[in-house]
Amino acid sequence: RWAWLARAPSPAAIDGRPLAECLSWYARETGVAPRFADSAAGARLAGGTLHGEGSGLAPDAALEVVAASTGLVVSRDADGVTLAPR
């Protein structure tokens, strides 16, 4: 009877967290691991600290907020989600 609870999304915790941690959260929530189009940009940005509010956002919306705040663009295709520099 409580099985739905395991499928319920956890809130997006963005403020004060590293980008890599937010991307891991997104992957856990959606089953899709975002990848960087440019490995150099990924290495440079992955450790950066994010600021802002994400509570109440669905995973895709939270990813858009995170991407916008770090100068990235999100693209989705059959292979998954890619983050690329603007």
What labels would you give this structure?
alpha+beta, 3 strands, about 15% strand, globular
What can you see in these coordinates?
With 86 residues, the protein is an alpha+beta fold. It is 41% helix and 16% strand. It contains four helices and three strands, in the order ααβααββ. It has helices at residues 3-7, 19-30, 39-45, 59-69; strands spanning 35-36, 72-77, 80-85. A three-stranded mixed beta sheet has the order 1-3-2. β2 (72-77) and β3 (80-85) form a beta hairpin. α2 (19-30) packs antiparallel against α4 (59-69). The longest helix is centred in the N-terminal third of the chain and has 12 residues, at 19-30. It starts with a helix and ends with a strand. The mean pLDDT is 82.
Instruction: Estimate percent helicity.
Output: 40-55%
Number of strands: 3
Count up the helices.
Answer: 4
- Secondary structural class: alpha+beta
SSE succession: HHEHHEE
For the sheet with most strands, the description reads: 3 strands, mixed
Between the first and last Cα atoms, what is the distance in angstroms?
46 Å
Tell me the radius of gyration: 13 Å
Low-confidence region ranges: none
**Mean pLDDT across every amino acid position:** 82
Based on Cα principal axes, name the global outline.
globular
Strand order of the largest sheet: 1-3-2
Strand content of the residues, in percent?
A: 15-25%
